[in-house]
Design a protein that fits this description.
3-stranded antiparallel sheet, alpha+beta, 6-stranded antiparallel sheet, FAD/NAD(P)-binding domain
Length: 441
């Protein structure tokens, strides 16, 4: 969990978060304790708990970033007492998988390996991509099974390029059909992110030193070595909110000086608006989303081409529920800003309505400007009775042999909040199944 250090250095932000606590029925004089509270606590009432909480972070106690990369690299590099490689793990960089290989004539289709392009930046999503550099076509074969972990975009793309997917879509691109699996690439879901920004009557300041990111004389570096200072702190807080459309808390917010406006193309295409020193944001994430009409479709049979990705947010009846939850969160944020006293207040809204003009169409702004970056569910697990279930309960691709998908695409629905921990759990569950089948006599 984050320490209260960032908030202690942010005098003006303390005023805002005191109002958040006050509106939630919490003690505003205990905000430094509240921002260390564990929102994933073990209370039976956890999913009803709203108000101000701590912000979990992907860091070790010394403030160093930690992710799934760490155990992979540690396993790859581990050696025994004699200095020999301890585990049979090879991590092949610059290896772009283009399709799964199946044993010819096998019934059901049996995965035996993968085909990949050896070379740098083979995928068009990479800004360094060069179509004239074709790479070296290579194959790798499996003694046991093939496990795809390409994520919600690339796992369905690889399956389709391999002949596993909706037969009509594969026929459109003359991809030989291995297995008609109509659910591959459908059911795309994600959290929905937006923000409510306003300008205070005075600037937000920080008492922390100004870091220079490792340059000579960086005043923050020595503190970082001790697990302290600006490099070890993350977002100020987490604010949990329950909309009228949900049975449990379904919206996650955090406050920050300046505004986060999502993901933008190159500055040559769009110019991201610059924030002002007095700008403060309550960032909004709907993690109780209900809509599931999104999809990942091929654009061609070229594996290097990025597929068509369309989340179809806010479409259909469930999408309208999502839209209402987001609008209620914006109105909640407005209520916080409206109560901030002078000299920090009054606040003037600049997003979603600028110049404090509350008459703008908030729902339309949300439709137009919502973003996301935690896609899931395009190779969903499901029962035998569901024709669009891509995987069985052991992550095996239905209708095939020796082929699994183990990543966030396997969730039938987005598991709530940021799905990183849930994906780790999913991975460990799949590991149990794989080891069980590998070692059975």
């Amino acid at each position: 969990m984050n320490s209260p250090e960032l908030l202690e250095n942010s005098t003006e932000a303390q005023v805002v978060l005191k109002e958040v606590a006050r509106q939630a029925g919490q003690d505003p004089e205990k905000i430094f304790d509240l921002v260390q509270g564990d929102l994933n606590n073990g209370s039976p009432e956890r999913d009803q708990q709203t108000g101000l909480w701590g912000f979990p972070a992907h860091r070790d106690p010394l403030g160093r970033r930690v992710s799934s990369r760490n155990p992979v690299v540690d396993t790859r590099d581990a050696v025994d007492a004699s200095g020999n490689k301890k585990y049979k793990l090879t991590v092949g960089l610059e290896s772009f998988v283009t399709k799964v290989l199946f044993e010819e004539g096998s019934t059901p289709p049996k995965a035996i390996g993968v085909e990949y392009l050896k070379g740098q930046s083979m995928y068009a999503a990479d800004p360094r991509y060069n179509a004239t550099k074709e790479g070296i076509k290579t194959q790798a074969f499996a003694r046991k099974e093939v496990i795809l972990a390409g994520g919600a975009f690339n796992s369905p793309q690889i399956l389709k390029l391999s002949g596993v997917g909706p037969k009509e879509e594969l026929a459109e691109f003359n991809i030989p059909l291995v297995l008609d699996s109509p659910g591959v690439g459908w059911n795309l879901q994600d959290n929905q992110e937006f923000g409510m920004f306003a300008n205070a009557a005075q600037a937000f300041t920080s008492k922390a030193p100004v870091c220079t990111y490792g340059a000579p004389g960086d005043p923050c570096l020595e503190a970082w070595y001790q697990g302290k200072g600006p490099y070890t702190t993350g977002p100020l807080d987490a604010i949990m909110f329950k909309s009228s459309t949900a049975k449990e808390r379904d919206v996650y917010m955090w406050g920050q000086s300046g505004a986060y406006r999502g993901y933008w193309p190159s500055a040559t295409v769009n110019n991201v608006p610059a924030g002002l020193p007095n700008e403060f944001a309550l960032q909004i994430v709907n993690f109780g989303t209900q809509s599931n009409l999104g999809y990942v479709k091929l654009r061609s049979a070229n594996p290097r081409e990025v597929p068509e990705i369309n989340f179809r947010f806010f479409e259909g009846g469930q999408g309208e529920r999502d839209l209402q939850a987001m609008e209620e969160a914006v109105n909640y944020a407005r209520g916080v800003f409206d109560k901030i006293p002078a000299p920090l207040g009054p606040f003037e809204e600049n997003w979603p309505c600028d110049n404090n003009a509350r008459e703008c169409n908030v729902k339309e702004k949300i439709r137009e400007q919502t973003w996301s970056h935690h896609a899931t569910s395009t190779c969903a697990i499901g029962p035998d009775s569901d024709p669009k279930a891509v995987l069985d309960s052991k992550f095996r691709v239905r209708g095939t042999k020796n082929l699994r998908v183990v990543d966030g695409s396997a969730f039938p629905r987005t598991p709530g909040a940021f799905p990183v921990v849930a994906t780790f759990m999913l991975s460990e569950k799949a590991t149990d199944f794989i080891l069980e089948e590998t070692w059975k006599v």
